[in-house]
Amino acid sequence: MSKPQKLPSGSWRIRYIDADGNRKSETFATFDLARTALRNLEVAADDTKIRRARHGSSEMLVREAWPVFKASRKPDPNNTARRFKNRGNELDRLYTRHIEPHLGDAKLGDLTPSVLRAWISKLVVTKTARRGEKNEDGRTLSASTIRGAATALRQIAKANDHELTVRLADSLKQKRRKSRPKAFQCIEDVRAFLGACREPWFKVAAAIACFCGARLGEVASLRWRHVGRDTITIALSWEGPLKARYEDDDEAARVVPLAPELAAILSAWRKLTNGRDDDRVVLVGGTRPLREGHDDMAQKTRSACKRAQVTPLTFHSLRASYATLVADQGLPTSKLQALLGHADASTTAIYIRSESANAAADARAVLGGHVVDTKSEPASQVLN
User: Fold this and answer.
1) Interval 140-148 mean pLDDT
2) Which domains are seen in the chain, by residue range?
3) Which H or E element spans position 231?
4) How deeply is 165 buried, as exposed, middle or buried, from its count of CB atoms within 10 A (0-12, 13-18, 19+)?
5) What would the pLDDT profile of 285-328 be if each residue is shown by its tens digit?
6) Sequence-ordered list of residues with C-beta below 8 angstroms from that of 363, at least 6 positions apart, any chain
7) Which of 74, 103, 155, 238 is deepest in the core (most CB within 10 A)?
């Protein structure tokens, strides 16, 4: 290792060769600072060289690794083509918005902890706005979005590179922050939100999500034959199989209790639409089925939240509201997981019909106790 040299001005200069073979120099006020910096720079250069020698792809730029990664993606035999396509679209958004602008010209072997921490620090303060929103509050990227970008980067740089995985985990741990609430915290907020839904068909869809914990695809695929006297059976998602590893829909389906308030809304809606057993429950404008990716349910949900002056949520967060409120009533975790279709927190959803049927019989799983007498009140008044 070379030694710092004292300059006529009294400062100390160091000279070193970086990992790319370029000669560089820097100056420091004292000898100790110069010596420490020189040692750290040379160690970092040696580490980078070792990492590049160990992984042949480390010389590749991130923007060069991106098309290679996309070409290597293969659909999971246990998943559907729709979900594989949706995941690809999500990766495209994460790469285009959060990875390529910051790290596109970086070599995979140069993604050191300091580089990754600097990247995540930029994402933490990046402002974001939804379509048609001015973002006057200066909202920034959520923690889940940042983690999604980090996961995408790890996949692009080959997930079998254990060192990169560790470096990303270390960087994310230091930049972890508390995200804003993603669910209604009381039944009164749910009622205020539903009261602010202007279109009857959207109020029906939102009520099913709030009182059953159903996903948007499950709401869109619900048929009147699935609505019983005391329970609702969720058996399909976007007219396809649920997120389960079973091929038999009957085994994958789950049963959830029918809340009194939801029963009143559905009864009024069925009278207006003359719904038959094989008809979809939710029809846009009373005539057209919901279409995946075409109906902006998130925007309608935010608008209703704004009118109701409650916590701004997305449509999928209505499912989290159901989970939050039911859990607050003391329902056992095992039963709540069955109602939501979760075998556990770390795996994909697995639907167990028998357990969810037992859970549906638990009175604590029913949200709200306000029952609307649809015989005495017009259906249009219940839905407005």
Assistant:
1) 84
2) 5-54 (no CATH), 58-174 (1.10.150), 187-383 (1.10.443.10)
3) strand 231-234
4) middle
5) 888 888 876 677 988 999 999 999 998 888 988 988 888 788 77
6) none
7) 103
Compute how many other C-beta atoms are within 10 angstroms of the C-beta atom of residue 137: 9
> In the Cβ-directed half-sphere of 51, how many Cα atoms lie within 13 Å?
22
Alpha-carbon distances, residue 73 vs 67, 104, 347 (angstroms): 10, 20, 21
Write phi, then psi, for 17 (nearest 5 degrees).
-115, 125
Structure token pair of residue 241: 């199989």
Q: How far, in Å, CA of 301 to CA of 314, rounded?
A: 6
Question: Contact 348/365 with Cβ under 8 angstroms?
Answer: no
Of 181, 190, 344, 335, the closest CA to residue 259 belongs to: 190
CB 168 within 8 A of CB 116: yes
Q: In the chain, where does DSSP find H-type helix?
A: 31-54, 62-72, 81-94, 100-103, 113-124, 143-156, 162-174, 187-195, 200-212, 216-221, 249-252, 260-273, 297-308, 317-328, 333-340, 353-360, 379-383
Q: What is the CA radius of gyration of the chain?
A: 27
pLDDT of residue 171: 59
Tell me the sheet residues that pair with 240. 237
Give the type of residue at 141.
L
* Side chain identity, residue 342: H
Q: Structure pTM? A: 0.60
State the SS3 of 73-100: CCCCCCCCHHHHHHHHHHHHHHHHHHHH
Residue 51's identity, in one-letter code, is R
Amino acid at 298: A
Residues 242 and 321: their CA atoms lie apart, in Å, by 21
